[in-house]
Structures are given as C-alpha cells and as structure tokens.
Design a protein that fits this description.
Elements (H helix, E strand, L loop, with lengths): L1 H36 L5 E5 L6 H17 L3 E5 L6 H8 L7 E5 L1 H8 L8 H4 E17 L7 H9 L5 E5 L5 H13 L3 E5 L3 H9 L5 E5 H9 L3 E6 L25 E9 L4 H15 L2 H8 L4 E2 L4 H22 L6
Parallel strand pairs: 1-2, 1-3, 5-6, 5-7
Antiparallel strand pairs: 3-9, 4-7, 4-8, 4-9, 4-10
Helix pairs in contact: 1-10, 4-12, 7-12
Length: 335
C-alpha cells in the first residue's frame, strides 16, 4: 500500500509540473509572438502636452519616420493637463504590449522629485525605451537690463542687496528648478516670479517688466534673434546654430552647470523586452539620420539616442538631483 501511495504521489507531482510547464509556455508564447510580429497595427505615442509645441512636432516627425521603418502608423495622442500627469497615467495603466508609448519629458522626473501622491509609481509602472532629445536652458535679459553679459549678471547677483527678479514659465517648472539650482550653488541673490506659461513670462521680460528670464531655448531664441532680448548664456555643452553668438556655460566660467532637459520614450511596465528593443533599434536608426537631426535642431531640440538602460538611469539621476534642489529651496509642488 505504501509503495502504491508513493507512486501515486510521484505521478501527481509530475502531472503538476507538466501542467505548470504548459501554462508557463502558454503565457510566454504571446509575448514571443508579439515581439516577432510587432507592430501589426498602429502604435500610439502619448504626448502630455497640447498640440503645436516643439515636443509635439518632434514626436510627429519621428512617427512619420518610424512608419516607414516598421510599416505601421505611429499616431500622436495629445493628453495635456495635470502637469503631464494625465498623459503619464494613461500610459502607465495601458496594456503592456508596446502599442502605447509615453513621450516623457523633464516633468516626469520632476514630478517624482516632488514626492507628490501620483496615480502611478514613476519607476515601477513605466520602463524606458530610448532617450529621444534634450532641450537646453537659456538665460536671457531685457534689453534695458543693467547687466549686458552673464559675467555682469553673476557679479550683480552675488552682491548683497535687493534680489534680482527673474521670470520662468511657472513655479516648479524645469526652468524654475534650474534657476534655483544655480542660485543655491553660486550664491546668487535672485527671486523667482512665476507665470502661467513661457509665453507670458517672455512677453513681460520683452516689455521690460522684469529684467531676467530663465526659459528653454525655444521660443526664447526667436525673441533673441529678433533683437527683443539679449541672450546671456546657453546651458548646453556647445553653442546652438540658432544663437551662434550666445556663449555656453563652459565659456563663462560655469563648466559643469549645463542645464538640459531629457525627453524620451517610456512604455508600461511588463512590455516584452524584445518589443522594447525593436522600438529602440528603429528609433536609433532614425536618430542617425542627419536630415532628421537638423529638422529637430531647428526646433531647439538636440537628438540623443542610446540604450533603454541609459535613459532609465538618466531619468532616475534627474529625480535625485531635483529632489535635493526642491528640498533645499522649499519649493512646493506645482499642482
């Protein structure tokens, strides 16, 4: 009897293993099929901003190139609002099959740095695909400002006295955070004045209401080109063709203070690695095209590329960097 029971127990264990193996193979098979056939229908790129900006335009230009490589449309869905949280949540909670991607901007890392209660876990619910482009910061002055160069601004801002007011797109924006980063580390006496967007901040500095502006390269570069503002410094490794006469930080004694905002693609956690790699390979192929690089440069965007891991590491490092700035300056969440 004992021999019989032992044999029966062994048989039951073998059957359970066979069933478990079959179930595992069944669960893996769809991922393998999706990776091999991907994409077999349109892919959606969620841009967490309204249509018309440089980020949106860059996504559409890339989508058109990817369609030629992968044979399916890449459709841009604009889901603006909530400081990019609405669009990010939509992707984080979508099906992890590679057909819904997020164009993640610097706001993704900043929102995580504020330690707000978010409807998703930034680095648990999303996985990196590729670093798409970066956008440099630009410091510009009103034409009637008392400082005519970055050196003069630094001298005045380091002197004791009334802080120099500066405008940015809004409180908690990347422009604001980078200005506070400089303020903390260089001992500058500057005071933030937040607006409801870059266009309003730009308008008031052009009108001479405020002497100083911290903004992105575009659209402020257009105002500098037109002579409405004076470009003081570009926070990039090298000069921009849009503003060839504006020095970069390393040329004004601020080496190591580059301020560029990384933008790239994220996918829902659980997306098959082979699908992620297929997207990464196709996107890097586009990024190697000189015409594409030039078309984005005109928008003020510097194409980058690279591996998924490199982009993921960069975004986490950005969150750590901005968390320190936010805590030291006691900056409240933007929402």
């Amino acid at each position: 009897m004992r021999t019989f029971l032992r044999r029966a127990d062994v048989a039951m264990k073998l059957n359970r293993r066979r069933l478990l193996g079959a179930a595992t193979a069944f669960s893996i098979a769809p991922s393998l099929v999706r990776a091999a056939d991907f994409p077999d229908h349109p892919v959606h790129i969620v841009v967490p901003y309204a249509p018309g900006g440089s980020t949106d335009t860059g996504a559409r230009l890339l989508g058109a190139r990817l369609e030629k490589i992968l044979g399916q449309p890449f459709i841009v869905d604009n889901k603006a609002g909530g400081g990019t949280i609405i669009g990010t949540e939509a992707v984080a909670k979508s099906r992890p099959d590679g057909y819904t991607l997020l164009l993640a901007t610097g706001a993704l890392s900043a929102n995580a740095a504020f330690d707000m209660k978010l409807p998703y876990d930034t680095y648990r619910d999303l996985v990196p695909v590729v670093h798409f482009f970066q956008v440099p910061m630009l410091v510009a002055a009103a034409n009637d400002a008392p400082f005519k160069s970055m050196a003069e601004l630094l001298t005045m801002a380091r002197a004791q006295g009334t802080p120099i007011p500066y405008a940015s797109a809004s409180g908690g924006s990347m422009q604001h955070l980078w200005a506070e980063y400089l303020k903390q580390r260089l001992g500058l006496h500057i005071e933030h004045v937040g607006y409801k967007g870059s266009s309003e901040a730009l308008r008031d500095v052009v009108a001479g209401q405020l002497p100083l502006l911290f903004d992105l390269l575009m659209p402020t570069a257009t105002a500098v080109q037109a002579g409405k503002l004076r470009g003081l410094v570009l926070a990039a490794p090298k000069r921009s063709d849009l503003l060839p006469d504006v020095p970069v930080v390393s040329e004004v004694g601020l080496a190591g203070y580059e301020g560029t905002i990384p933008n790239g693609f994220m996918a829902p956690a659980g997306t098959p690695p082979d699908v992620i790699q297929k997207l990464n390979t196709a996107m890097n192929e586009v990024f190697a095209d000189k015409d594409f690089v030039h078309r984005l440069a005109v928008l003020g965007l510097t194409v980058t590329g690279g591996t998924p891991d490199a982009f993921g590491t960069l975004m986490k490092a950005e969150t750590a960097k901005w968390r320190t700035v936010i805590q030291d300056a006691h900056i409240p969440p933007p929402l």
